[in-house]
Amino acid sequence: MLKNVYTVEQVNKYIKNMFAEDFMLRNICIKGEVSNCKYHTSGHIYFTLKDASGTISAIMFAGYRRGLKFQMKEGDKVMVTGSVEVYEGAGKYQIYAREIELDGAGSLYLQFEALKKELEEMGMFAQEYKKPIPKFVKTVGIVTAPTGAAIQDIRNIATRRNPNVQLILYPALVQGDGAKESIVRGIQALEQLGVDVIIVGRGGGSIEDLWAFNEEMVARAIFDCSIPIISAVGHEVDWTIADFVSDLRAPTPSAAAELAVFDYVTTKQKLREQMLRMERSMGRSIYMARQRLEYEKSKLRFLSPQNRLNENRRHLLELEEKIADRIQRTWTTKKHQLMLLANTLDGLSPVKKISSGYAYVESNGKSVKTVEDIHVSDEISIHVSDGKMKAVVMEVSRNE
Amino acid sequence: MSSEKTVSLEERFEHIEEIIEKMETGDITLDKSFELYKNGLEEIKAANAMLDDIEKAMLVMNEDGSLEEF
């Protein structure tokens, strides 16, 4: 009997093909413990997955390194997603990893921390990339589930604050398989539509429920979106990667609506106030113009010929009064001087002298001052204080 | 008309503030005052119109990108 003989290559190819055609092996997730982990200089990572029963070789090519968010080491419990294929060169099968996640308690936390650190180092949380949320938006895009509390809360608050704002919902899956892709599509669709701001979020839930918002592709979609994004995931205490990368983090979906939608009543009120301020200002301007007009008018009146005339007349009157006053004063002074002189004169009065025994002699109406004025037989009058006498000169002699 | 549309409400508010500030400094002519006042009135009217622009129902986006009432 003639046996069929095959080459090694034929067999390996045959088995490789069997594996390749197996739907399950093309996309499989295997959990196990890491051993023999080697980070090759080429960027590939070689390791072995093992559990109590045995081992399977694993490789992650450099091109898939983004699927690994932590430094994998000996003994790590991991879940490896990829395809199981045959490596013909060694005649063995192995898993070609696309994504490696830590398994077990705390692994989500570690993944979160690792991605947060990575994105932070890349500058994706940097303040300088945060776009300001416009103050007065007209259209708000919302990426969240069409059912559930989040969309109702957002709708209620937004409508209460401003019934004229257009809300556009992209109904997204927010948890489970396909959630991250759905959220990313929502962001991109609303960006393309051209809304003013986008709210991305969901109501509260467990860390697993919120997990889509910790996915790198969601973070990147938020970062890459040209429209400002407000994240609103879970409750106040829940922080997701989406919150760090978004332009503004709202603690809850309700709060996001408050932040995105301006209050209609307050804004109307403000416009009214501005109207009032403008009217007051205008009123003041008119008042001031009128005041100025009054001032100019009085200035003009002051400069009028009539006013000049009145002014001159008044001046004249003033001068008259001044003159009268001056005269009065001069007169008083003179009178005073006169009185002083009169007193002095009184002291020198001959009558006074006469009263003390002296007499005053006259001849021919002239006072006699010297013997030269008198001749014998001249008639003279002798005045004393209480009368006068007539006498005839009997003798004239001169003092020796 | 289209250039009118590109002025955002925020810009209008800023413009109104500016006008009021200028008016309140008082260091302007009466003519300028009137001009600013007229300008401000127009801005406020436009802002009010923008605020009261159409009441809208919430829309939902379909897979094909079309919109319908939610």
What does this structure look like?
The complex is a heterodimer of chains A (400) and B (70). Chain A is of the alpha/beta class and 400 residues long. Chain A is 43% helix and 23% strand. Chain B has one domain (2-69). In chain B, a hairpin with a 5-residue loop joins strand 1 (59-61) and strand 2 (67-69). The mean pLDDT of chain B is 81. Classes of the chains: A alpha/beta (400), B mainly alpha (70). Chains A and B meet through strand 7, helix 5 and helix 9 of A and helix 2, helix 3 and strand 1 of B.
Brief description of this entry?
The complex is a heterodimer of chains A (400) and B (70). Chain A is of the alpha/beta class. Chain A has helices spanning 8-21, 23-26, 107-121, 149-161, 179-193, 216-224, 241-245, 253-260, 264-303, 305-348, 350-355; strands at residues 28-39, 45-51, 54-60, 77-87, 92-102, 139-144, 166-171, 197-202, 229-233, 248-249, 360-363, 366-367, 379-384, 387-392.
Structure summary, number of beta strands of chain B = 2
- The Rg value of chain A, from CA coordinates, equals 63 Å
Q: β content of chain B, as a range?
A: 5-15%
Corresponding CATH architecture of the domain at 136-262 in chain A: 3-Layer(aba) Sandwich
Strand order of the largest sheet of chain A: 1-2-3-5-4
Structural class of chain A: alpha/beta
